[in-house]
Amino acid sequence: MLELTRISSAYGAVEVLKEISFTLAAGEILGVMGRNGAGKTTILKTIMGLIPKRRGSLKIAAEEISHLPPHAVPARGIAYVPQGRRLFSELTVAENLRMGLLVNNAPQSDAEPVLDLFPILRERLAQAAGTLSGGEQQMLAVARALCTKPKVLLLDEPSEGLFPAVTHRILDTVAQLRQSGVAILLVEQQVKSALRICDRILLIENGVIQHEAKASELAANPVPLERYIGVHR
How confident is the model at residue 233 (pLDDT cuts 50, 70, 90)? Predict the structure, then answer.
């Protein structure tokens, strides 16, 4: 579904990603973990075209997309939920969802399956996004992304600033997307959350993938987590 081959990208003269390669299959959840500054968010921004790559190939469903401008990437089936949510705070919940629908000029009715995943948002449709709780704002950010009907969903730190119970609920809902074949790339600092829902984990350090393993293997043997993240679980 998504394939990165020897991708390198930089902020100005500083190269951050160095020869990153991995694949992400339909219906799979792949976690990306590492210390602050390791390059996790840069992977997502490079996929979205927000940071230009220097070298390498980026494909979705076998189509090369690394040459596309950022505004054209969502139409190829990649949705991005950035760290901090980036909602239109003065717009209503319904209007924020409409922004996602506009990617494919989809009708308002296409938001209904998304609202079924997050029923609390149905009760908040006329409410300004900026007045929602932190958990509800994260739900809205994910819901807006899902309104684009993505093949691949990129999630950057969805647990940031949330109570564990809220994070648990949101990630469990995201995990349901496996059934519809959505591929999910998850950047997450909460080790327990990542190990619980991910199929595989990439551990990144200094812009290089240092270790790849099934989540179940890391749960049984946390030594790589201790080495590259500094925590046991």
Answer: low
Cα-trace Rg, the chain: 17
Domains delineated in the chain: 1-40+50-77+150-158+170-233 (3.40.50.300), 84-149 (no CATH)
pTM: 0.91
For 92, the token pair is: 């209503």
Closest CA to 135 of 106, 104, 168: 168
Closest by Cα among 29, 12, 17 to 176: 29
Q: Cα 170 to chain center, whole Å?
A: 13
The answer to whether the CB of 218 falls within 8 A of the CB of 211 is no
Give the tens place of pLDDT for each residue, 186-226: 998 888 888 999 999 999 999 999 999 999 999 999 899 98
